[in-house]
Every structure is written in structure tokens, then in C-alpha cells.
Write a sequence for this structure.
């Protein structure tokens, strides 16, 4: 299949241009604006077909490269290119954005044009983050992304939206600026902002540790890891449905992506020395946050805490590689942890996005997210209940769904490193099932709880399309994850090689 | 010593043609005001703008590619001076344009106002091109006296008079300190010319203790003009008390002069003593960033908030200067120029919002602005994210440059402090965005403005985004004009 020239630039700038167009069309021509937004987001999805089909599965090198001079004085380039860990996340982004736009089709009443525009701009910026091969370009996309998200939560959010969005912005900004200092330091040392050149840069232990910690500040907040996770429940609860979906499905992945793209290859020795820190925090997130999720009364908050616990698997899988290698000497074992981390990211993107959309469906009808306000929804909304239970099962890691693949890979890999790590990680199988199934029991099953639930109408066509698409994706990866793993394999193998070679 | 007779030829004064032109234009306006009074108001306004445009034309015509010294070393024309002057004219012209309606409504648009503005520009020109401490001091006084008078321009306004008084008294003390430092420097080096001082300091001829002593006073003078902590006391009161157009004027073009002052004295004259003044500037920069950003949070008046924001930005500019190398000076220049663009735009919005008998200077006046006028709310949003230093606005590149400059001289802790302070700073800029976008308007009347102001504000906002997406040109310009 012929791949269009400069396909990555198209993917980045097409949605941004469409966003500006929607904004210019304004609120009065929103009927047209909606279609423009949908057409643009579907176009990026179509563009992803040749992107995936034309991807060379035999190399870890950056593909679809574009390199134009950008800022000569700083030796910064408009340099794009993707490898096997960027491609799945880009596809995830372009997959989720049309769904968000469809789900918000008529449910956003205040300033819908600005709403659609914000999501289109976000889409372009997020693709930019995953495809930037120049650290400065990466940082510009990374930070620019905060602006539309800040507005999305602040304008269309719930009652405490101002608090939540400012907290979100400042938290992530604080982490990011420390990363900026590290990037500048690396540039001054190596003379280039090219990420691949930073990978090759020899660094002493002290430098590596400082750089690792600076990156850690940025990515740990984004993931988010315990104890810097507190912005997430607030942001999720207050954000509008679409905001929660993009936040959970894509933005959290950027933390994981950052660890794989920057922390591990740039500071491999510091990562090895400090892997206990990440592993400990990941295990705390998995176990402790799992308990926290159990006691939530707000559906969105419960899913937010469940997100933190699930993202713990991503960081665990990524950083347990050293232990596996040291304990067993097996390189493929180390790769398995990283594979699991990547699959978990994609899977969590789909599942948590779907769960937030489910909550959105209920919220649009009864305008409350309290678990206690529901009960027996299955009686009035059987189709919805089917999807909700399916996604809940995927969240709990039921075999046959995507949630199982990621968690299973990580737990098996961790087992090779240390039994007790695996023991704590496996607690999620119980806790995840507990909080998800209990949520399902209280909301979906049982007798009709009140008049509100009795008056509920089942999914309309629009909602059905969105949830059915997601359900297919979740089942597809659950049953046949091979295409995803094939795409990642050369890049993960190369990443493991990078980890094993000391820079000292 | 043999005395050479003073003979001036045209070639001797040609590089200073723009200064002569502006002085002449100011005098002409004064005459017109005296003869025609307020009838010629609109003509005089156009003439003032034309004078700035003419000065820009002359400056770019007589521009030199190599530093040229005239008037026995007291005046130096160089590429840096050319660029700084052009930006100063631009800032002054845009400032006047933004201010026009406001001044007309309050019957403040009189010839004297324009004359004072032009004289302030003249002072800036002299500072920028100063080749000796004497001409530098002369420039500072021309500029400062014009600014004092502008702050006090509205005789009816007691708060403004108080602000002017504070500004004048504290300014006089700072001038005294500067002059004292200059005299000591003259004493230890035996010359008043900057290149002579540089040679003397570089050769190690000057008495070290005397030099340090003089240097301390000079730094105090520079810090005062910049508004760096702990010499910042005047700044919030002046910004708050002055009429908004005057605040805008004080906040824009004179910042370029402050940068030129630091460059001429510290970088060019005392470049050899960088170790001595670097430590002093570190303290000033760190304190400015901390005090400016933290105190700004507590403000409820946007002019006062922007005043503290200015103090914090001064700290960032000083980061570039204190690096004491070409990359640092370049960063500081880039920061100064882009800061002027951003702050001009921000005050432009404040002016655009204020109407007869109504000052849009309480933060609550910005509530729901995005409902009343989405486009200018967006422009203000760009200004705020720009001042906060969030990409893709130009403010990010300014911060990136100065942070790189201090990292380059191994002041990692200062770089870390700078980025942490920029996070604190982000809070109060975000608050403006919050008011504009997340709150409901208290007053739903649409906001009117002349087409010229609307175009200029739009250009101003787009510039912040456009330079932010492609900062290469401005960076290259700064790199080219600095030695």
C-alpha cells in the first residue's frame, strides 16, 4: 500500500488545522463544525491504515522520518519518526479521538465548537509527542498539550473544575520543567537535541542519577505513580466525559512512553540502580490504590483509582527488566516485561476509555456519578449493561480481553525476578476483580433502585457505535495480540540491548 | 596633555542622526502644542507616530555593521544598538496606539504627553548608544525625568501623584548611587569611557577594592532601573498608581533601556570583573524570581499583579546577564525583546477593556471575557501562557535560553530554582485564564475598540504564537548583533 509522503506531519497538522477551522466556523455553524470535526478525526484514522500496513516489522530504526531545519541557533530540528513503541500509541490516539467526538455529538450544550476544536488540537499535539524524534520538539508538543486539556476540564467540567484543572496543570507543569532542565543539560553536554544522540551519549553515574530523577519527576506525575497521583482523581472526576477518556486513554500513556523513550535508554545505569524505587512505588500503586478504589462512592473516582493501579503494571513491567536479567540472565525474559508494559498501555487506553464513556452514558441521563444513585440498570438498559459488564471484565483482567494479556505478561515476567514482587502484583487479580465486580453489582445488577433508573432509556445508535467499536477492539487484542506484539518486537529487543550496555 | 580642538564634521554626528531627529521632533511638537493647543490633538498624535517611524527609518539607514565610535568615544553605534532602538521605537509606537482612546476619553491626550514620550524615547536611544558612563547617565536622566512627569501627568489624580513622588525620590537615590559608583570607577581607572574602563580592568591596573566598591554602587543603580529585588519597591506602586497608558509605557520600552544599561556597563565596561558582579546578580536574580512570583499571587489588581510579574521576569533576564558570556547576553536580549512584546500586549488588553469612568484593573473585570469577545480573550490567553513560559508561545524560548545560559556556567541550582519559580508564576497567569474562560461574565456589554487597535492587538497576539512556533529568526538576530 503506498504511504503518503510526510504522513506524520499530516497526522499532526490535519487535526490541528481542522480544529482551527471548527473554531472559525463558530458556535452558530456548529452543525457544520461537528461534521468537519468528525471528518478530520476519521481522516487521521484512515491515514493510519497505510501507516500500519507500510510499517517495516524487521527494524527498530525510526520510520517515516522527516527532518527539516527548525531552529538553527539551538540545533533543534523538526524531526519526526516512529518506531514500534510509538506506532501503537499513535494508533490508539487516532482510534480514540473520533469516538470522543461521536460521543459528545449532542451532549455538549455549552460552546460545542470550542469543545470539538480543543479535542482536535489535542489529537494533533498528542501524535506530535509520540512522533517527535527531537527532544525540544517533543517538549513543545508535551507542554502545549496542557493548554487544551486545561481548558477542557476548566470550561466543561463539574462543580470543582477550577480546583481540579489548576491542580492538574501545575502538577504536570512542575514535573515537566525539571525534565526540561535535564534536556538542556543533555544538549549542553552532547550538542544535540536529537533523542537518538542522547541515547548514545556517555554519562557518569552522578549525571545519570540526576537526569533520571528529573525525568522521573515528569513521567511519574504523568503516569501517575503513587504518591504523586493525587491530581488524577480530581481531574477525572471533574473533567467532562471526553476529557476523562483522553486523559486516561492517551495522556497517562505519555508517562509510560517517556520512561521507555528517555529514562531507560538515556540513563540505563541509574535506572538499574534505582529500579527498586520504581518497583516499590509500582507495587504500592497496585496494592494500596487497589484498596482505595474499593471504597469509592463516585464511579469516575473508582475508575480513576483503578487507572492508577493498572498503570502500576506499566512501570513495573518496564523496570523489572533489570532484575529479570540479573536473576535469570534471560534477555527474552526482560523483553517480556517491556512487552507486557506496552500491551498494558494500549489495553488500559481502550478499557479505561470505554469505562469512562459508560459512566458518561449514565451521567448524561441522570446527571449523577454516585454509585448509590443507581442499581438495577440492567432492567432498563440491557444493551448498555452488556457492554458495561464486558468492559468491567476486561478491567478485571478476564482472559479473552485485552486486560488479561498485559497483566499476564507482566506478572509472568515479574515472577522470574522475584516471587514476592509477583505475589503483590498478583493481588490485583483479586482487588481488581473485587472493586470492578462490586461496582457492577451495585450499579448494573439487582432490582431497579429508584424512579430515575426506572426511567432510563437504553443506548441510542450513536452510543452503541462507540461502545461496540471499543468492545471489538478489546476482544481483538485479548484474543489475538500477535499483530501488536509483532510491531513492537524489534524496538523492544533493541531497547533491552540498550539497557544491558552500561554507559559508565 | 595636548588639547585637540573640537571640530565636528557631518560624519561625526551622522550615526547619531536618529537621536537628533527625535529631539527635533519633540521640540516641534512642543511648539505645535503651544501654538494650536488641543485643536491639533489628532495631528500631533500622528506626528508623534510619524516621528517614531522616521527615527526607525533613519536608524536603519545609518546602521553600521561594525561598532563605530563617535563624539570622542561618548557615543557608540553598533548592531546591537540598532536592533534595540528599532524595538524601542516599535514598542513606544504600539504603546501610544493602544493608549490613544483611553487618553482621549480622559482628556489626557495633550501635546505634552507625546512630547514626554518622545523625550523618554530619546533617553532610551542615548542609553542604548552610550559609549561612556557620562552619556549613559545623561540618557538615564532624560528617560527617567520624562517618565516621572508622565506618571504625574493627570493632575487630578492623587494616587498617580503619590506614585510619581515615590518614583522620583527613589529614582533620585538610585541615580545618586549610580553616579557615586561612576565617580569611584573614574577614580580607579582614570577614564570615563567604557572601552577605556574595559581595558584598564582587563589589564588589572585598577585597584581591586576600589573597583569592587564602585561596582557595588553601579549594580545598585542598574538593579533599581530594572526593578530587581531588593530595589523593586517603587515598581508596584508606580505600575498601580499611574494611569494605565503610562504603566504600559513604563513597562515596555524602558525595559529595553535597562537591558542596554546592563550590557553597556557590566558586559562591555566591566566584563573583566565578571566574577565580582556575577555573585551580586545571582542574589538579585534569585530574590527577584522568588519575591516577584510569590507576591504576585496575592494581588487582586491586575496592574499590581503585572508589576510583580515584571519583577520576576527581571530576575529571569538577569539570569542571562549573569552568565557573563555571549550565549547568556543573547538569551537576556531575546528575553527582554519578547517580554516587551508580551507585556505590551497584556496591558493593551487592559486598556482595550477600560472605558470612560471605568478602569478594567480589578481581576474580576476579566470574568467571562471569552463570552464577551472570544478572539481577544484568546489573545489574552496567549499573553498569559506566554508570560508563564508555556510552549508553543514565545515565552517558552525566552525561559529556555536563560536556563540554558545558567546551566552552561554550572549554576544548576539556580536553573532548578528558576524553573520552580516559573511553576509558581504559572499559577497567577492561569488565574486570569480561569477568570476569562471558566467564569460567567458580570457585565455582558460588548467591548468596542478602534479598528487600528484591534488589528494591532491581534498582530501582537499572533506574534507571540508565530515567534513561538518559529523562534529561529529572532534568535539569529540576537546572535548576530551581539559580539
Amino acid at each position: 500500500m503506498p504511504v503518503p509522503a510526510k504522513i506524520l506531519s499530516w497526522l499532526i497538522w490535519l487535526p490541528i488545522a481542522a480544529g482551527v477551522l471548527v473554531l472559525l466556523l463558530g458556535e452558530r455553524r456548529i452543525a457544520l463544525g461537528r461534521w468537519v470535526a468528525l471528518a478530520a478525526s476519521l481522516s487521521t484514522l484512515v491515514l493510519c491504515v497505510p501507516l500500519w500496513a507500510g510499517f517495516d516489522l524487521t527494524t527498530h530504526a525510526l520510520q517515516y522520518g522527516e527532518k527539516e531545519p527548525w531552529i538553527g541557533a539551538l540545533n533543534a530540528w523538526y524531526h519526526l519518526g516512529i518506531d514500534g513503541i510509538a506506532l501503537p500509541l499513535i494508533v490508539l490516539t487516532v482510534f480514540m479521538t473520533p469516538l470522543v467526538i461521536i460521543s459528545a455529538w449532542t451532549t455538549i450544550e455549552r460552546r460545542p465548537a470550542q469543545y470539538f476544536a480543543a479535542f482536535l488540537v489535542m489529537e494533533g499535539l498528542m501524535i506530535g509527542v509520540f512522533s517527535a524524534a527531537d527532544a525540544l520538539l517533543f517538549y513543545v508538543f508535551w507542554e502545549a498539550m496542557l493548554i487544551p486539556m486545561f481548558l477542557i476540564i476548566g470550561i466543561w467540567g463539574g462543580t470543582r473544575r477550577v480546583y481540579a484543572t489548576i491542580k492538574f496543570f501545575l502538577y504536570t507543569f512542575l514535573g515537566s520543567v525539571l525534565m526540561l532542565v535535564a534536556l538542556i543539560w543533555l544538549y549542553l553536554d552532547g550538542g544535540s537535541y536529537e533523542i537518538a544522540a542522547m541515547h548514545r551519549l556517555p554519562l557518569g553515574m552522578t549525571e545519570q542519577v540526576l537526569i533520571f530523577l528529573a525525568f522521573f519527576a515528569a513521567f511519574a506525575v504523568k503516569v501517575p505513580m503513587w504518591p504523586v497521583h493525587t491530581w488524577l482523581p480530581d481531574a477525572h472526576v471533574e473533567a467532562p466525559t471526553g476529557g476523562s477518556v483522553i486523559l486516561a486513554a492517551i495522556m497517562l500513556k505519555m508517562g509510560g512512553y517517556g520512561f521507555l523513550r528517555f529514562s531507560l535508554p538515556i540513563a540505563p545505569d541509574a535506572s538499574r540502580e534505582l529500579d527498586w524505587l520504581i518497583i516499590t512505588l509500582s507495587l504500592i500503586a497496585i496494592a494500596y490504590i487497589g484498596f482505595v478504589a474499593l471504597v469509592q462512592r463516585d464511579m469516575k473516582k473508582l475508575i480513576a483509582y483503578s487507572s492508577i493501579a493498572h498503570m502500576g503494571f506499566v512501570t513495573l513491567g518496564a523496570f523489572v527488566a533489570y532484575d529479570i536479567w540479573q536473576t535469570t540472565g534471560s534477555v527474552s525474559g526482560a523483553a517480556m516485561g517491556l512487552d507486557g508494559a506496552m500491551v498494558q498501555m494500549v489495553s488500559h487506553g481502550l478499557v479505561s476509555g470505554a469505562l469512562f464513556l459508560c459512566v458518561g452514558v449514565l451521567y448524561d441521563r441522570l446527571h449523577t456519578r454516585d454509585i448509590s444513585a443507581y442499581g438495577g440498570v440492567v432492567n432498563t438498559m440491557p444493551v448498555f449493561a452488556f457492554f458495561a459488564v464486558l468492559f468491567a471484565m476486561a478491567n478485571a483482567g478476564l482472559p479473552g480481553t485485552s486486560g488479561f494479556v498485559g497483566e499476564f505478561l507482566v506478572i509472568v515476567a515479574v515472577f522470574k525476578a522475584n516471587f514476592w514482587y509477583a505475589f503483590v502484583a498478583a493481588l490485583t487479580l483479586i482487588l481488581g476483580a473485587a472493586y470492578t465486580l462490586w461496582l457492577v453489582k451495585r450499579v448494573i445488577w439487582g432490582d431497579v433502585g429508584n424512579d430515575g433508573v426506572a426511567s432510563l432509556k437504553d443506548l441510542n445508535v450513536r452510543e452503541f457505535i462507540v461502545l461496540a467499536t471499543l468492545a471489538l477492539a478489546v476482544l481483538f487484542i485479548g484474543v489475538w495480540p500477535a499483530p501488536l506484539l509483532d510491531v513492537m518486537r524489534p524496538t523492544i529487543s533493541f531497547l533491552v540491548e540498550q539497557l544491558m550496555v552500561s554507559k559508565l | 596633555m595636548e588639547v585637540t580642538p573640537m571640530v565636528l564634521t557631518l560624519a561625526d554626528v551622522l550615526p547619531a542622526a536618529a537621536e537628533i531627529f527625535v529631539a527635533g521632533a519633540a521640540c516641534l511638537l512642543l511648539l505645535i502644542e503651544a501654538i494650536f493647543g488641543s485643536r491639533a490633538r489628532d495631528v500631533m498624535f500622528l506626528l508623534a507616530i510619524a516621528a517614531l517611524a522616521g527615527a526607525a527609518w533613519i536608524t536603519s539607514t545609518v546602521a553600521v555593521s561594525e561598532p563605530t565610535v563617535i563624539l570622542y568615544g561618548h557615543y557608540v553605534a553598533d548592531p546591537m544598538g540598532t536592533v534595540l532602538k528599532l524595538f524601542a521605537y516599535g514598542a513606544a509606537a504600539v504603546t501610544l496606539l493602544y493608549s490613544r482612546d483611553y487618553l482621549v476619553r480622559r482628556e489626557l491626550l495633550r501635546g505634552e504627553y507625546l512630547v514626554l514620550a518622545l523625550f523618554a524615547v530619546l533617553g532610551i536611544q542615548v542609553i542604548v548608544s552610550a559609549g561612556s558612563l557620562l552619556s549613559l547617565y545623561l540618557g538615564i536622566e532624560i528617560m527617567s525625568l520624562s517618565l516621572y512627569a508622565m506618571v504625574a501627568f493627570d493632575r487630578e489624580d492623587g494616587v498617580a501623584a503619590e506614585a510619581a513622588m515615590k518614583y522620583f525620590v527613589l529614582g533620585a537615590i538610585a541615580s545618586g548611587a549610580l553616579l557615586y559608583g561612576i565617580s569611584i570607577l573614574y577614580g580607579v581607572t582614570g577614564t570615563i569611557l567604557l572601552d577605556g574602563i574595559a581595558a584598564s580592568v582587563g589589564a588589572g591596573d585598577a585597584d581591586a577594592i576600589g573597583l569592587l566598591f564602585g561596582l557595588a554602587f553601579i549594580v545598585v543603580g542598574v538593579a533599581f532601573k530594572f526593578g530587581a529585588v531588593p530595589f523593586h519597591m517603587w515598581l508596584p506602586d508606580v505600575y498601580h498608581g499611574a494611569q494605565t497608558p503610562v504603566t504600559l509605557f513604563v513597562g515596555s520600552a524602558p525595559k529595553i533601556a535597562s537591558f542596554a544599561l546592563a550590557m553597556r556597563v557590566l558586559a562591555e565596561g566591566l566584563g573583566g570583573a565578571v566574577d565580582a558582579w556575577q555573585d551580586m546578580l545571582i542574589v538579585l536574580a534569585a530574590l527577584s524570581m522568588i519575591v516577584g512570583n510569590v507576591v504576585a499571587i496575592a494581588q487582586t489588581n491586575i496592574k499590581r499583579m503585572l508589576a510583580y510579574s515584571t519583577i520576576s521576569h527581571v530576575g529571569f533576564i538577569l539570569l542571562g546577564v549573569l552568565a557573563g558570556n555571549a550565549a547568556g547576553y543573547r538569551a537576556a536580549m531575546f528575553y527582554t525583546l519578547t517580554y516587551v512584546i508580551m507585556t505590551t500586549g497584556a496591558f493593551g488588553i487592559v486598556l482595550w477593556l477600560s472605558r470612560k469612568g471605568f478602569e478594567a484593573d480589578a481581576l474580576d473585570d476579566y470574568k467571562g471575557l471569552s463570552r464577551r469577545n472570544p478572539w481577544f480573550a484568546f489573545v489574552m490567553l496567549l499573553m498569559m501562557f506566554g508570560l508563564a513560559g508555556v510552549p508553543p508561545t514565545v515565552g517558552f524560548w525566552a525561559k529556555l535560553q536563560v536556563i540554558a545560559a545558567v546551566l552552561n556556567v554550572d549554576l544548576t541550582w539556580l536553573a532548578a530554582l528558576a524553573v520552580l519559580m516559573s511553576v509558581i508564576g504559572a499559577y497567577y497567569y492561569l488565574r486570569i485564564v480561569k477568570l476569562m474562560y471558566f467564569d460567567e461574565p458580570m457585565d455582558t456589554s460588548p467591548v468596542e475598540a478602534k479598528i487600528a487597535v484591534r488589528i494591532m492587538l491581534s498582530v501582537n497576539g499572533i506574534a507571540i504564537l508565530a515567534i513561538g512556533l518559529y523562534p529561529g529568526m529572532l534568535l539569529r538576530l540576537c546572535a548576530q548583533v551581539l559580539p
